[in-house]
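Can't paste images in this forum, so I'm doing it all in text. The chain is below; anyone willing to post the predicted structure tokens underneath?
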Amino acid sequence: MSSPTIIRPYRPADEPAVMDLWSRAVRRAHPFIEGEGTGERARQLREVYLVQADNWVAEDGHDGTVLGLLGLLGSEIGGLFVAPEAQGRGIGAQLLEHAASLHGALTLGVFARNEAARAFYAHLGFTERDRRTDEATGEEVITLGRPAPLRSVGWLHIRDGRLLSVRTRGNDTFYLPGGKYEPGETAPEALSRELSEELGLSVPAADLSEAFTVHASAHGVNAGRRLHMTCFTGGPQAIAPAPGREIAEYAWFDRHEARERCAPAHMRVVNRLIAQGRMTA
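Text version of the structure:
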């Protein structure tokens, strides 16, 4: 089982580990830049960016090893680096979604010749805004941007190892009970309202407890947008749903049924519940 990743604010004591992972990561990413990861560029990271930017690190939840660095200049990502040995584990995506949770819409610059990074950002919904020449290196830099993720809430209600799911009229895909916020609502308030409107259930906001947030691509009319869905537990276990508003039907699905009939974010929820031992693999 892989170690959990913790994202926390950068501390001065992290500097040696951060400088080491940055140097190794940029040398791998930018072999076309002479002296990358050393000299003046290393000095600027240490003396300027680690001091002035809003920096966050990703660390191994078991042993505290620093595995990634995120530097923010407001809503602009000034740098996102993951130690080479930790790449491919989703750490970069977690740091990126953390930035989105703080600022919504994001921008960043990437060297045109860094094809791996361009593919990574494209996969996570970034598109090209413009191009320029970097004065320090002479390399072409592409400015990428992504709109703020859609924010929604979902209810985790499990019965006999199956997860409650709903389908809207005119749609063949199932989702978690829940939906988007309305102006001025907190997440529990939004979910309490949605459960009443969708299933006729009275679940006070105070009875709901946040479980986790999943990040995925939105489905349906918002396909292509990123989705941040905060999931909650709580409320009565014995329920008698009465579908209302646009809900056509509800059902309880196991992992296999969810894979065939549910939206992408739903499967991420199922995978988390399996990892927690709340659903069977």
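Helices lie at 15-29, 39-52, 91-103, 115-123, 187-199, 255-261, 264-275. The chain has seven helices and 15 strands.
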